[in-house]
Structures are given as C-alpha cells and as structure tokens.
Amino acid sequence: MSFFKKKLWLVFVLILAVTVIFAALSRMGKNPLSDAVNTVLTPIQSSVAKITQSLDNGFEYLSEMKGYKQKNEELVRENRELTAQLKDIDEYREENERLKRLLKISDEMAGSQTVAARVVAYDDDNWFTYITIDKGEKHGIEVSDAVVTADGLLGQIVEVGYNWAKISTVINPESSAGVRIVRNGEIGIAEGDVKLSKINRCRLGYLISNASVIAGDILETSGLGGIYPPGIKVGKITDVRKDNMGRLDYAEIEPFIDFNNLYEVVVITQWSLQSDMEESEAQQNVDNVENVG
Predict the structure, then answer these.
(1) Partners of 233 in beta bridges
(2) What is the spatial distance between Cα 171 and Cα 126, in angstroms, rounded to a whole number?
(3) pTM of the predicted model, to two decimals?
(4) Which residue pairs from 54-58 have beta carbons closer than 8 angstroms and sit at least 24 positions apart in sequence?
C-alpha cells in the first residue's frame, strides 16, 4: 500500500471515530464529560472538516481537469480538421490559378493545335531531364512536339505511347533549342549541359564571337529549326563565360520553368511558322498605317 493510500485510510478511520464519539455524546446531553470531550475534539473535528473539504476540492479539481483535457483534445482535433480544410482550399485555389494560366496559353495560340496534360512521373536518374505526362498518341501527340507551361518553354516530346508521352526538358544534356536575345535579336542555341543540369540550368552557345550578351538578358525561342514556335519565353542569362582570350564562350541560362512545381503542361501538336509570320506582318502594316495617320 502506498503512502498516499495509507494516509487516506487513517483520515477515514479518524473521521469515523470522531463521528461515533459525537453521536454517543449527543445522546448523553450536557455534562462535564461531554464538555471536556467537545473541548478536545472540536479542533480535531475542524481539522477533519478542512481535510474533508480539501479532499472534496481535490476530487472536484481532478474531475474538472479531466473535462478540460477532453475539451482540449476536441479543440485540437477540430483545429486539425480546419487546418486540413484550409490546406485543401489553398490547393484548389492554386490549381485553379494554374489552369487559368494554362488556358490563357492555349487561347494565345489560336492558330495552333494544343493538348493539355498532367505531369505523372520523373526520370529516375535526374528528375528534371525527362518528364512523363498522361497524354499520348490517343490525343494526337507525336515525337518532336513542343511542350510549354504557363512560365515558358519546357522541352519537346521524345517518346510516345497510347496514353502517355515522355518530354526531354531544356536542361537535358541531349536537348537544344534555337533562341534569340530579346534585347538585341542576336541568335544562339540553348542546349543542355551535364554539369548545369544538376542545378536545373542550361547554356547559351553557338553565338558569334562579338555577340553582345549580358547577365539579365531574356531569351525566347527563335522559331528556327521547326521544332519550337517563335516567341516562347525560355529563360534569362545569369552568367557570361569567356575564354582565355577574352572572347565570349557561352552564357549560363536559368529557365523560367519552376521544375519543383510542375503539374500541368501544354503540348503544341501543330503550329505554322507561316501563319505566325503573316500575323507579324499584319501587325506591322497596322503600325505603319497608324504612323502615317
């Protein structure tokens, strides 16, 4: 028996003894013996009453604490449920925004045929060099089709199945794309690099020796090569490398694509450089007319 249990037992016996004594004295009426006993036992009775009250308060406190604990557990559970609901709402909102931006891309490519698809897998060796989507031959996708997101160029289709397709991204060492510098129109090639792919970047090469390239320059597809339509955002220059003679060697490109947050893409299954050129010429004619007026 523990010390606490022994103490409770002694208190119980003492209360019982005092109760019996007082019961006996109450029947004897007033006399010197009862006065003496009352004089001695009254402080004890007061102490016992205090102890009893303390025990009652203690049990009541424990009961209240148990209720508070249950209430706290309910509040914690409700808080978790509300947090999960808010997270779902935020995810739905983000998905809705992504789909709106994707729809905008499709609308901007009115003269092209496009297919929207979801990212379902990444390459085992390097997650972002090859990416698999959930659309394929069944949806009109073919090898060499260009792939974009709301942020810019992602890459091109290199393998197709009935209801899936694999994308080689712009950072893949085996990829390349004709690009132009928006600032001055100079042409080059964005190509993958083994070392740079580890940090989700690629390089700008095949530039003329006196090309003007500076950090911060924006790149877009040139349309040359027939794979990618012109005017698609590619990335920006983050570093310019020169050889021992001080001549331009290559520049480092940071793609606009956020590879860590890829969910949906747009595959351009058909586009016409001629129609793009016609639209550009039409716009130029409009500008000329406005200038003359």
Answers:
(1) 220
(2) 10
(3) 0.61
(4) 55/11
CA-based angle 16:21:22, to the nearest 5?
100
Measure the CA–CA gap between 235 and 281, rounded to whole angstroms: 26
Among 147, 156, 158, CA closest to 114 = 147
Residue 282, C-beta contacts closer than 8 angstroms, at least 6 positions apart:
none
Query: Which run of H or of E encompasses 157?
Result: strand 153-160
Read off the pLDDT of residues 128-140 as tens digits, 9 standing for 90 and up. Answer: 899 999 999 999 9
Tell me: the pLDDT tens digits for 150-204?
Answer: 899 999 999 999 999 999 999 999 999 999 999 999 999 999 999 999 999 999 9
Assigned token pair, 154: 């992602």
Residue indicated by tokens 């102490």: 47
Token duo for residue 24 = 């006996």
> Using an 8 Å Cβ cutoff, are 116 and 223 in contact?
no
Q: Are strands 153-160 and 113-122 parallel, antiparallel or unpaired?
A: unpaired
CB atoms within 10 A of CB 111: 14
**DSSP structure class, residue 126:** S
Q: At the topology level of CATH, where does 112-271 sit?
A: Thrombin, subunit H (2.40.10)
Q: 118 vs 31, 104, 149, 268, CA distance in Å?
A: 100, 16, 11, 14
pLDDT of 272 over the 90 cut: no
Other CB atoms within 10 A of residue 182 CB: 15
Residue 175's pLDDT is what? 92
Three-class DSSP category at 276: helix
CA distance 159 to 37: 105
Q: Where are the domains of the chain?
A: 1-108, 112-271
Average pLDDT over residues 258-274: 84
| Helical segments of the chain, H only | 3-28, 32-108, 194-197, 273-292
